């Protein structure tokens, strides 16, 4: 089933083209459901953090001793200061500035990156919003725009979908690799009429409506089944709090392992969590529902670190 709808406003501004100005808000259109693992010490069950380490000495570097450098040649860097980087940031205009309208099917699939739902910003924006959506639908066009989100400028396509609009962030031209060097079949490799007919018959036999609920992430489902089975078998292990993070004696401490065991045995209902615990749980739930919020970059970096243990990133120049 689809991820729950998020009404959280991630960005507020307006669509602008010509003299038209339509107030709108952006909302996350996707949800991250991949398994997110934490790094733990096997023997002590304490969390393992990510340190920025000097590769020459192996020593952890204090934040104030780290600078940002751009590699212009092999082992040759230009260092940029925080003020220099800040001065180069794009000026936020809170505007989805449409610069052109193009045929929807003229944008190659490799350019599409991340979608956002676009919603009218108040009652005053309802009619112009509907007018733009209907015009795009009738003409088969999409609006190509520039927009600044969280200090970063993006190229984007404004696309009609149902009764609304979707703003799909696009990759810049220099971010899309040229496929000319790949061993794609040329014009001299042609299928016969009989082969084409049989292939078309096979496609027709397998044709159907788009039903995304029929497709599942089997790897994630198997891992979740394994986690739930180990949980039922008493495989939960408590993480040891770091010094200074111990729960104060006056706080209400809930033994989660015992509560789970009692629940599995059909015991009495678990006591309601303390106000502080409820607040923490609500914050975690909100963060999980809106993974696209730019302020949560720290959590994303942790996930990326885990992913790098199983997949070697492609070699590329370091950017700021």
UniProtKB/TrEMBL annotation:
Gene Ontology terms for molecular function: double-stranded DNA binding
Region (Disordered) residue spans: 266-320
The UniProt record lists the keyword Membrane: no
Keyword entries, A-Z: DNA damage, DNA recombination, DNA repair, DNA-binding
Protein name as annotated: Non-homologous end joining protein Ku
Provenance organism: Ramlibacter monticola
This protein's record includes keyword DNA repair: yes
The family this protein is said to belong to: Belongs to the prokaryotic Ku family.
Biased composition (Low complexity): 301-312
